[in-house]
Fold this sequence. Notes:
- The chain is of the alpha+beta class.
- The protein is 44% helix and 25% strand.
- The protein has helices at residues 3-14, 43-47, 52-68; strands spanning 22-28, 31-37, 72-76.
- A three-stranded mixed β-sheet has the order 1-2-3, covered by helices on one side.
Amino acid sequence: MQIKQVLSDIAKSIVDRPDDVVVLEEVSGDGVTLILSVAPDDMGKVIGKHGKIAKSIRLVMKAAANLTGQKVSVEIR
């Protein structure tokens, strides 16, 4: 299971323009940072009201990373 692919699949299922979803991976000493980019029109759908969807995405990603023994953080740009 690749963590990057999991985030990409989640984001593509939420947005209207799935072809514009890009996930970049930055590896550092203490874990992995995933940078999620979506179309400007889809930003609200990924963040949600009061950031609820973004928090949920981060929670699911931390759970998925925990299965592989990694530490992961998600940035939305």
